[in-house]
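JOB MANIFEST
job_type = single_chain_structure
chain_count = 1
residues = 105
[input]
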Amino acid sequence: MHTLILVASGMAAMLLFLITAHFANKSRGAGFIDGGRLFIWFWLVATVLNGAYGFLAHGISLLVELMVFVVVFGAPAGAAWYLSRMIRRRHAPPAQKPEASPPAA
């Protein structure tokens, strides 16, 4: 149950990061804030600290903590990575066509 709560919390935090970055990008003139990438670093630190606490304070085995870490970190981080790529594609400048050179004589 604890794992499910952490994954749901991660998804909620990811949405918060993405929404905050969206509004920050709208109000800024230049530059682009990628909320998904920021979230992944934040979530990595949070899940490592959670695993360390479980290992050190509660005596949960390291192997169990590593397996739970894969799920707790992987699901929200994977979703954030995917959404970040979709958002970046939407905000990317259009590709410029190369100028046609005149035919050689």
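[summary]
The mean pLDDT is 89.
The CA atoms of residues 28 and 40 lie 22 Å apart.
exit_status = 0
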